[in-house]
Amino acid sequence: MALKKKPVTGMRDIMPEEKEIRDYVEGIIRKTYREFGFLSIETPCMEDIANLCSNQGGDNEKLIFKVLKRGEKLKLEEAKEEMDLVDQGMRYDLTLPLSRYYSNHANDLPSPFKALQMGNVWRADRPQRGRYRQFKQCDIDILGDASNLAEIELITATTTCLSKLGFKNFEIHINERRILKAMAAYSGFEEARFDEVFIILDKMDKIGEEGVKEELLEHGFDAAGVEKYLGLYQMLHSQEDGLTMLANTLGDSLEEGVADNLREIIDCVEAAKQGDFKMVFDPTLVRGMSYYTGTIFEIVMPEFGAACGGGGRYDKMIGNFTGKDVPACGFSIGFERIILLLMESGFKVPEEGGKVAYLIEKGCDKDKMTSVMVEAAKLRQEGTTVLISRMNKNKKFQKEQLEQSGYTDIREVFNR
Amino acid sequence: MALKKKPVTGMRDIMPEEKEIRDYVEGIIRKTYREFGFLSIETPCMEDIANLCSNQGGDNEKLIFKVLKRGEKLKLEEAKEEMDLVDQGMRYDLTLPLSRYYSNHANDLPSPFKALQMGNVWRADRPQRGRYRQFKQCDIDILGDASNLAEIELITATTTCLSKLGFKNFEIHINERRILKAMAAYSGFEEARFDEVFIILDKMDKIGEEGVKEELLEHGFDAAGVEKYLGLYQMLHSQEDGLTMLANTLGDSLEEGVADNLREIIDCVEAAKQGDFKMVFDPTLVRGMSYYTGTIFEIVMPEFGAACGGGGRYDKMIGNFTGKDVPACGFSIGFERIILLLMESGFKVPEEGGKVAYLIEKGCDKDKMTSVMVEAAKLRQEGTTVLISRMNKNKKFQKEQLEQSGYTDIREVFNR
Q1: How far apart are CA B43 and CA B26, in angstroms?
Q2: 8 Å CB contact of B272 and A377
Q3: pLDDT score for B1
Q4: Cβ-defined contact of A13 to B272 (cutoff 8 Å)
Q5: Is 80 exceeded by the pLDDT of residue A130?
Q6: What is the mean pLDDT of chain B?
Q7: Which of A108, A291, A366, B404 could potentially form a cystine with A314 if both were Cys, beta carbons 3.0 to 4.6 Å apart?
C-alpha cells in the first residue's frame, strides 16, 4: 500500500529556505526578549478539554482539534456525544496555557513574572490561502504587575525586536477597553449591548464612519445616541492630542486616571524608543477577545492590511484557575505574518563565515577521505560551513545547485 | 467553575531554569549541524492516521494519540470502531514524517539531502518517572547517499555536537544488520526466526552470555546452533580487530564488502575525530526498529545506563511512499536524556554580558521612568540583560530572588 505524500489538510511542510528564516527570526526574538529579562517557558501542546472549552477562547473554541481517549477509557458503545470520546485537545493559543502554568507554579516563579513562549497552536479553520491549521505563536506576558510599566516594557521590547528584524515605519495602535466603554456609555447605549456596538465599531477601517453609522442604526440603536457616538470620533480628527480632549469630554463617564495611565504609556515608549515607529492612540481599536480588561494594542505594518500582532491586559483570567485575580498583560507577535513579510521582501539570513563544499568521487580510499575530514574539521572550527558530499554522476547540476545555495568554494576530490 | 491547574497526564510544564538549558542546547545543535551543511526543515505535528498505522513504527503505533474527525465528517452513530472516528494522529517519531516530506518534495531538494529536524513527538506510554508523553526529538538524516560517507558525516557531526556540549568519554557503538543476520545464518538458525534471536541477543548487556544462551535454548533453538552462535561472541573477546576476524570466520555467510564498509566508517571517524570519544564495533547491538537495512549505531554515555541516541540506515522506507527506494541514513540525538544529564551535572548556560535590574518605586513620574528606559536601551545595546520591574512591597525578598537569578547590579529608583 502506497502511503500519502501530502501533509494533512490545512497544514504544511516548511522548506529549507523558509525554515532558515524562521530559525533566524526565532533566534532574534529569543535574544531580544532575554535582554529584557523575559524568561522562556514551555507547556504541553495538549490541554485538558474542559480547560479549552471554558469560554475563555471565544470563537477559537469551535476550532479545537480534540484528542481521542485511549485504552479502557474510550467507551465507544456508551458514547452519546463528541465530548464523551475525548479528554484532551490541542491548544488554540498560548494565553490559556500560560494562565494555567502560572496558577500551577506561581510560588516557584519570580514576581512580577516576565514570560516568553514560542510554540505551535492548532485551529481547525476552513483551509484558505495563507492561513494554516498549525501555526506558530510568539507571546510575551508580564504577570503580577498592575502598573503600566508592564505595557511600557512589553511594547518597548516588541518594537525593539521588530526593529532588529529590519521593520520600519510601523505603528503601535493603542486603546483602552474602559475608554471604549466610556464612549459607549456617554452616548447613551445600554451596557448589555456594548459588545454589539464594538463589533460594528471594529469595522471602521473597512466601512468608514458612514458605514458604522448605518449599521448601528440598522441594529436599532437610537439615532441621537449614534449621532453623539460618531460625533466623538469626528471631533478626534481635528485634534492634536485627542486623548486629553476625549477624557475632558467624557468627564465622569470615564474612570479617573485611565486616560493619564494611557498617556504615560504612549509618552514613555515614544521618549525612549530606539526604532523607526510611532505610538498612535486609536479609539476605534477593539480587539476581539472578551478577556481583555484594560489597555489593548496592535502592530500595524504599512506593508500589510491586517494587524501583525497585538495584545492587552487581562487581569481576570488567572482568577479562573485560582479564584484569586492576578494582574496580567501580554503581547503576541504575529510570527507567521512576520515570516510572510520577510519572505515577500526577499529577506536573506546574514551569512556568517564562508561556505565550502567537498565533492568526493566514488571509490576514494580511506586516507583521502580522512584527510578531507580533518581539513573540514579545521574549517568548521573557524566558523566555515563545510558540506562533504558524494560526487553525483551529474556533477554539473550538483555544482550549480550548490552554488545557488551559497557554496562559492567547491573542492573536488578524485579517486586517483 | 475552577479550571484544572495541572498539565494533562504524562506531560509536563518546563520551568525557566530547564528551558534556558534546552534553548541553549537547541542553539548549539542547530549551529553545529548547520556548519556540516545540514538544512533545517519542519513538518506538521499531525500526520494522516493511515500513514502512522502502516507498520513502519513497530510498537510505537500502539501509542498514537489519535485526533477526532471534525464537523460533518464525524459520524458518531455510524462509527463501529476507533478508526472510524479519527483521520489524523500525533507523530510518534520524526523519521516517518521525513520520509513523507522527502517523497513529496524531492524535486525541490538538493541531492543528497542533509536534513535537520527538531520537534516534539507524542506517545501515549504508561506514565513513569523521567518518561513523558510529549518529548523532543532531534534527528539528522542524509537521503540519497548510498555510500558510507553518509554514516561518517552523521557520526562526525553528532560527536562534534556532543563534544561542544561538554560530553567526554562516550562511545559510539556500531554494528550492521547484515552482520547480525550473517552471524545467525552461520549458526544455522532459520531466517524466519532471526528477529526472535535478535530480541534475545539485545539483552546481552543485562543478562550476559549465559543468560542469552539459556533463553535461546528455552525458545527451542537447536543446542548446537546456540553453541556455535555464542562461540562467535566468545571468540571476539580475545581479539584486537574483531571485525576482520569475524568477517573471515563468517566467510560466504556475509555479503562481500560489508565488513570493509563498516571498517572504513570506524577508521575514518576515529582518524578525523575532534572530541574525546571512541568508536566501538559492537556485534551485540541490535536496535529495535525493523526498518533498518544496514549500519546501526548508538551513543553510549558512561553516566547513563541506556543509549543517549542512535540511528542507522533505512534504505527501504521512502519506497513505501513513492514505489522507488532511496538510500537513507539517520541519527537521532536523545534530546531529553542530554538535557537530563546536563541538569543533573549542574550545567549552567554561559552568561553573555552582565545582568542589571531596575526596581521602580510606585508613583515615579514619567520623566524618571523615561530616563530609566533610555539608560536601559543603551545597556541592552551593549549586550547587557536589563530587567525593569515595579518595586514590590517586600523589596528584600524581591532583591534576593533577583540576586539568585544572576542580577548582581540592582538599581533602585525612588519616587522623590
Answers
A1: 17
A2: yes
A3: 55
A4: no
A5: no
A6: 93
A7: A291
Sheet containing strand A113-122, strands side by side: A39-40, A113-122, A134-143, A328-333, A307-313, A295-300, A170-176, A277-281
Hunting for cell 467624557 — which residue is that?
A250
Q: Which residues of chain B have pLDDT under 50?
A: none
Residue A110: asked if its preceding bond is cis (omega within 30°), the reply is no
Nearest to A46 among B2, B11, B104 (CB): B11
Name which of B20, B76, B122 is nearest A79 (Cβ-Cβ).
B76
Whether residue B42 contacts residue B26, with contact meaning beta carbons closer than 8 Å, is answered with no
Residue A94 and residue A123 in contact, taking contact as beta carbons nearer than 8 Å: no
Q: Is residue A274 over pLDDT 90? A: no
How many C-beta neighbours within 10 Å does residue B263 have? 17
Backbone angles phi, psi at B84, to 5 degrees: -75, -20
- Which is it for the CA torsion A75, A77, A78, A84, positive or negative? positive
| Cα separation, A171 vs A113, whole angstroms | 27
Q: Could you give the CA distance from residue A245 to residue A240 in angstroms, rounded to a whole number?
A: 9
Per-residue pLDDT tens over the stretch B161-178? 999 999 999 999 999 999
A interface mutation test: which of B390, B392, B396, B407 has the most A CBs within 10 A?
B390
Q: Do B15 and A323 touch (CB under 8 A)?
A: no
- Count of CB atoms situated within 10 Å of the CB of A149: 26
User: Taking CB atoms and an 8 Å limit, are B13 and A44 in contact across chains?
Assistant: yes
Yes or no, beta carbons of A39 and B51 under 8 Å apart: no
